Each structure stands twice: as structure tokens, then as C-alpha cells.
Amino acid sequence: MKHFLLAATFLIACLGAAPGAETPSELKPFVRGSWQDVRHSHAGRPTLVHFWGVTCGPCKVELPLLGQFMKDHSEVDVVMISADLVPNLDSATRAMLEKAGLASAENWIFSDGFVERLRFEIDPAWQGDIPRTLLIGRDGTVTTIEGSAEIPDLEKWLFQQTATSK
Questions:
Q1: Segment 36-69, tens digit of pLDDT
Q2: pLDDT value, residue 89
């Protein structure tokens, strides 16, 4: 029976998701040094980094809007980082990302019990309030949005990024 279950699991993984379904990305553990990895891997590209949490009410409203923004603007790298202080929310995090259309974004989850250290690496002045969005320009310039990000503001930033690259 055990071999049958393993074979069935393997077959389902090989076949992939149903047609039209979004393929979920890996939920990477955000630990010490991850911020430098994110910055390095997206250098030279306009990147939206959004800090959110399963327990954050405004985040639940904002996530589907960001999912639509990502769908409409493939020229922007979207990085989602779940910064909940409550541990063991992996399944709830995945479910919220899938529902919002963000499962295929680059997704991370705080995985260090010392979250203050993680926040300090990102921005020494950040006290941990979410939602929080960092817009990283092609030139590495960071614009911080405290609270919910407005789509017109994101589109204005993106327009500036494309105007400066020409």
C-alpha cells in the first residue's frame, strides 16, 4: 500500500496541475542572509517585494489586487514574503497565495525565531508593521510603501521604470 501511495503521489506530481490552474512555486524559508539573496537575484530588474501575513486583515484585501497586478505586468519581478510572527502557517500561506493568484510569484516565509534580526537586515528602521511594500528600481533605488499599496501608485512607479530604461 505504501508503494502504491508513493507511486500515485509521483504520478500526480509528474502530471502537474489541472489545465489553467496556477502552478504553485516553492515556499522558501526566509532566514538570515535571504534578503541579500533576493536583492542579488533581482538586480537590474524592477522588483516589487511585498511583506504580508496570514493574520493581517488589510493583507487579505490587498493580495488579490497584487495578484492581478502581477498578471498584468510580467515585466515586474514579484516577491512575496510572509512575515507573520505566528509559526507554522505554511499551509494557510500557500492557500492565501493561490487564492490571490500569487502562487507563481517568488514566495518566502519568515523561518527564523528571531524575526527582529530578519527585519533589521531588510531595513533597520522597520518595526514589523505589515503590509509593507518595497519597490526596487532597475538602479537599486528602494521606495517603501507603509500599509496597503495602491495599484495606481504601483503603475506610476512602473511607468517611471520603463521610461528611464529607454
A1: 999 999 999 999 999 999 999 999 999 999 999 9
A2: 81
Domain 28-164 has CATH 3.10.20.30: no
Cα 121 to Cα 77, 97, 107, 113, 151: the distances in Å are: 21, 24, 18, 14, 27
Strand order from edge to edge, sheet including 106-110 = 27-30, 106-110, 77-82, 47-52, 132-136, 142-146
- The set of cell numbers assigned to 21 is 490552474
Angle ∠(73,79,84) on CA atoms, nearest 5: 135
**How confident is the model over 146-156, as pLDDT tens digits?**
999 999 999 99
Cα–Cα distance measured from residue 123 to residue 102, given in angstroms and rounded to the nearest whole number: 24
Greatest distance between any 2 Cα atoms in the chain:
60
pTM: 0.83
Give dist(CA 113, CA 15) in Å, integer: 36
Euclidean distance between CA atoms 70 and 72, whole angstroms: 5
Question: Which residue in this structure is represented by grid cell 518566502?
Answer: 108
pLDDT confidence of residue 165: 60
Domain boundaries, the chain: 28-164
In this prediction, residue 139 carries a pLDDT of: 94
Question: From CA 40, how far away is CA 54, in angstroms rounded?
Answer: 27
